[in-house]
Amino acid sequence: MFHGDNGCRLVSMKTQIHTQLGAPPHDGSYDNEALSCSTIDITAPNSGEPHGGLRGSNEFILSDSGKKVTGDDQTGQLNMWLQRKARSAFSEKMIKKRLPILRWLPQYNSTDAIGDLVAGITVGLTVIPQALAYAGIAGLPAAYGLYGSFLGCIVYIVFGSCKDVPMGPTAIASLLTFQTAGGSVGKAILLCFLSGVVELLMGLLGLGFLVDFVSGPVSSGFTSAVSLIIVTSQVKDVLGITAKGTTFIEIWRNIFNDIHNVQVWDTFLGLTCIAVLLIMRIIAGLKVGPADDELKSKNHRIINKLMWLVGTSRNAILVVVCGAIGYSFQSSAVAPFKLIGDIPPGLPSLKAPPFSLTANETMSGTEESFMEMVSSLGSGLIVVPLIALMENIAICKAFCKSNGKPVDATQELIAIGLANIANSFVQGFPGTGSLSRSAVNNASGVRTPLGNIYTMALVVLSLLFFTPYFSYIPKASLAAVIIAAVVFMVEVKVVKPMWRTKKSDLIPGLGTFIACLALPLEMGILFGVGLNVVFILYHAARPKISVERLTSPGGAEYLIITPDRCLIFPSVDYVRNLVTKQSIRQSLPVVIDCSHVYGADFTAATVIDSITQDFARRDQPLFFYNLKPSVCAIFEGLSPADFVVYYREEHLDDLLKQRAYKPKEVISA
Tens of pLDDT along 544-574? Predict the structure, then answer.
């Protein structure tokens, strides 16, 4: 029976099975009748049970009375889950997963050592000039860039999962540090510590998936905008003028206000250094000899390796040459270039990050407590860790896809979190993996994360012995290093493929790009993510719905309406209006094919209840085909009248007969 005394009741999957196969098993499971319609033979050999013994889950189904049937006691299940988690947390597999060094160190050999040595030294020659330059982007003295470039490397060796990641300052992290800490040394160090704590907690809680909310177009727009802001922030040092600001527009306004103070020698040196760096970058990619590597002679290989090494070490070579030029003017009363100034010699002292600031340490001249410092850092405490993770994951994806290894975002969060916490104890500012240095690392043949130890050694040696000479480096040369590096981060090349694949993706990408240029970066990235969420919600609110007029096996015409996704509150009114419009226009029995409806909510249940009442008043049959039991339970929660579900196409004619449906004659005027 489909009808009861108080109207039509639910025809569940189990009702159909009971009619044909008898009473249900005592465990509450059911045979999946939908499998009978499949064209694939999945019957297990030597099995006398229907469908090869496949049965539906008894974890969450409906009984004949409409009550939920549960399997095991919930408390027992919770205890079992906790026991499984406890066992897995201390298993050998999990320990090696959380301490990746235990996986590769036992197999470490001489070949790995040579590869790591070459790569580590090459990256070290790159990181020293970059660290000095990135400190300027963060609004800090040059020494703090070096302080954040060595201790984190050791931590990443133990906890890092990607061999190509060199831990240290990056252009994006430096700019975010400047916008968050405002050039305050104490706040920058505290930001490093708190960012590390946030990253570590996110890793322990498994929140690495949050980076998935930043789509490719939003990431491209953000990276491109940051690149232009960084280039803009360095124009003042190339021109030898003073121009402060945190946003793209503000910096350019101040540059034009001070343009009359341009220094000729700084400008000449800066432009010359940019040109030299770009030429040396081209040299690094040049090859001599035959195109086939096997046909190249030994001399060809030596020349190619030398050109690559010179091109890769271009930053270090340029800084050394420019430092020598600056040193040559030490006897002059006034140097023709602006220099970066004195750098304290030796390693930084090991101490806890500042949790309060004295009046002499603040820009306002008043003391600041820990809570006041945290309040002033604001949203940077969330944005800096998320962007650091985004940078690091981008590196891992770029260099791990060649060997097919999955990226463990949780482990990377733990690694960079602990590295930043360690860096804060040696007065470093927030850092993460650098894409440019990772490319150098990979091209140099790095084999394991142990390459970081040689990079660290070079940074430590430079702090111990070479800091007196760093003070002679012209600011224009460091600005040229930054400009020549980040200008290639502007992702113009993604626009064309994005246009060819899905033009609407350009909107969040372009919106993020403009917002990051006009607003502070944290607001720009939030705007981009919000714009992306709006697009997602729009697609959820406007599902694609196909409408077809078909004939049943018994010859009855009916209308089948098929939504392509779940029914949730943004989309249900749209679906209801379309179903109502098409049903009134066609005046036929309506079947809603729910094969693609994998979820629903309370709002959807209320709308389904309303639709069934509308159809009942019009005496027009409405059926739901292939509705999943979990969704069926949601709809049945409101006890809708005339709510009929079936799972086999041949049942439609039986349902129409039981409804005593007769096609209405349409009289045309």
Answer: 888 898 888 888 888 999 888 877 778 888 8
Contact 194, 146 (CB under 8 A): no
- The pLDDT of residue 23: 39
Q: Quick one: average pLDDT of 602-626?
A: 89
Instruction: Write out the DSSP string of 515-554.
Output: HHHHS-HHHHHHHHHHHHHHHHHHHHHS--EEEEEEE-TT
* Residue 402 confidence (pLDDT): 55
Distance CA 506, CA 496 (A): 10
DSSP secondary structure code for residue 169 in this structure: -
pTM value is 0.74
| Contact (CB, 8 A) for 337 and 475 | yes
| Averaged pLDDT for residues 356-370 | 84
The tokens 């990056």 sit on which residue?
A: 170
Domains of the chain (ranges, CATH numbers): 110-234+248-342+350-533 (no CATH), 543-659 (3.30.750.24)
CA distance linking residue 172 with residue 154, whole number of Å: 22
* Residue reference for tokens 């607003």: 519
Contact 481/197 with Cβ under 8 angstroms? no
Which residue from 422, 420, 426, 433 is spatially nearest to 381, judged by alpha carbons?
420
Q: What percent of the chain has pLDDT above 90? A: 23
Between 110-137 and 475-486, two packed helices, what is the crossing angle to 10 degrees?
110
Amino acid letter, residue 437: R
Helix H or strand E segment including 69: strand 68-69
Q: What is the pLDDT confidence band of residue 627, given thresholds at 50, 70 and 90?
A: confident
Which CA distances in Å does 287 have to 15, 278, 304, 667? Answer: 74, 17, 6, 83
HSE-up of residue 224 (Cα within 13 Å, Cβ side): 19
Looking at residues 292-313, what average pLDDT do you find? 85
Could you tell me which of 161, 103, 224 has the C-alpha nearest to residue 492? Answer: 224
∠ Cα 221 222 223 (to 5°): 95
pLDDT at position 244 over 90? no
Buried b (16+ CB within 10 A) or exposed e, 601-612: eeebbbbbbebb
> Residue 5: what pLDDT?
37
CA 581 to centroid of chain Cα atoms: 42
